[in-house]
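Late entry, written up from scratch paper. The run itself happened at the end of the previous shift, but nothing got recorded in the book at the time, so transcribing now.
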Amino acid sequence: CKSKCAYCDFASYPGKEAAWETYFAALCGEIRAAKDGLHRVETVFFGGGTPSLLTPAQAARLIRAAGPAPGAEITLEANPETVTPERLAAFRRAGVNRLSLGIQTARDDSLARLGRRHTAAQSRRALGMAVQAGFTDISGDLMLALPAYTMAELDETIALLAESGCTHISGYLLKIEPNTVFGKCPPEALPGDDAAADFY
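Output as recorded:
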């Protein structure tokens, strides 16, 4: 990741690019070793953190290591600020056939509070680029029950996703984990459990 979001509890280490090649080689070895006991690899999922920071060549290397079955679903999670038309087209050529974009919300103030590095305008552009690159399976992440969240914000986010080429929406509630920025300093105006359930 380029930075860590305020709610993120993933094992991610921003600014560690220098160690990437060593990690990457070890990961390819782990995938090959794990694959030895499997008959068929039906799905490959690049998720957690910001896997769209991989180069398309690195993604292709990992896909080859996994040896997926013909027609397997190969998903790449991407943050809107990390994609370009060229990179998306290259990921398609590398074998990625499903894109999962971390849109979260259509409101820039909410994105900033979360520590996200993109804007709603970048989300729209990223979705348009994904369609242009030939992705026909595009999922958009939608985070619910954010600080000061309203049904209007939810409706705006659903509209952004629906109007921009998403074929699937993954909705989930903001969860405050203890060892995150939000866990140490909870944001104000979080919806209660009943309101969060209503949004869901």
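The CA atoms of residues 38 and 66 lie 10 Å apart.
(Scratch paper discarded after transcription.)
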